[in-house]
Write a structure and sequence with these properties.
222 residues, 2 domains, 8 helices, 40% helix
Amino acid sequence: MKTLKVPVLPIFNVVFFPHTAVPLQLVNPVGIQMIKDCVEANSPVALSLTYNSQTESVSPVQKTCGVGIPIILEEKRNFLKVLVVGMSKVRLLKPVKTAPYPVYEAEIFTDNTETFSLKIEEVDRLKKILNSWLIVAVSDQKERENFFKNLKSVHHIVDYISMFLIQDPEIRQLLLETNSLYDRIKTLNLLLQGENPFSENTHAADVLKNYESIEETAKMVH
């Protein structure tokens, strides 16, 4: 088991996936100091989903979270704009420091090694959905082209769809916690119904939350 010590930044309504990058705007002095310390030490930060919109520095709500390297884009008085570039996901084990911000011992959480092959049509459908969403969400063509140049694997497609198209944070968290790429693809195709869906089908989402397991839900559509 590979472990590391990582500062944890709870972010309202954000589930951070390892094969993505997410921009953040921070105003809390503790969160700003955490990011500055990570940049100075060239060390990663973990982003944990919280349902509290008023804080960036309380103990994290979710024990499984994404980890990435922060890059400062803009700094002003009491304001920091940062891009966090994903590298892995972790399970938080125990706190090793609480002040001035929480630092946890964590274990790297990786996908299972899967011997069966992915269905090309299911992956292609997700890629087309992501492409259609980008045309609507990103008006600049060069930005869209640069985005697609960075989609180097199926993991990138699946993680970006999970982070940006799935609206329910509980569903996003379940997608992050599962360790099967195969099951995540199955589940996304189940959730995203229709020709160009830009959010999940609410009935399918309710079924998934009732099962509380992507593996079990994915079996329903195998």
